[in-house]
Specification:
single chain, mainly alpha, 47% helix
């Protein structure tokens, strides 16, 4: 029941971004599965830094399999923009 777009206050990361940094493929898969069914996962980071996408984080930390899964999910999407983060923790 948790909102997948909840962002943490310090870096503006969602749970998908944290999974990409940590290389947690199981968490990333669960979030991407949610996105496939509900279409409301935010792939970008809202922070004072230039926005970065979850795919970029996965690539920059060497988690190429996660980046590939994100790329596959986004290419399957209908092009709708995610609703974006709603809660800051």
């Amino acid at each position: 029941g948790a909102d997948v777009n909840t962002i943490e206050q310090d870096r503006g990361f969602t749970c998908l971004h944290i999974a990409c940094v940590n290389g947690d493929a199981d968490v990333a898969d669960a979030i991407l599965d949610h996105q496939a069914h509900h279409g409301d996962v935010d792939f970008s980071i809202l922070s004072n830094d230039p926005p970065r996408r979850a795919w970029q984080l996965a690539m920059s930390f060497g988690h190429y399999a996660i980046a590939e899964k994100i790329d596959q999910h986004q290419s399957k999407s209908s092009g709708d923009q995610p609703s974006g983060p709603r809660h800051v923790i």
